[in-house]
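Continuing the batch. This is chain 6 of the set; chains 1 through 5 are on the previous pages. Same settings as before, nothing changed between runs. Recording input and output for traceability.
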Amino acid sequence: MSQYLSWLTVSRWSIGSYGTLLDINNLVPELIVFPDDTVLESAFKANPVYDPSWGNLLVNWQVLLLQGFFCLAIVFLLKKRQDIL
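Output for chain 6:
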């Protein structure tokens, strides 16, 4: 449920576009294998949200623009209502 609610926040899409621009998936360290075959996994894993592609970046920017227009429409409606009253 919280995963779907996060899609409504600006921070999710802005961090997604920022991570795409910086190619965060490329910064995830490889697995470390010790001589006794013990494997130390990374605390972070590559995430498709940060895929470094133009399509992914454009989707993030489009959602941010849509949220901006939605907030702007709410402000205009509230100001119009204030002018009428």
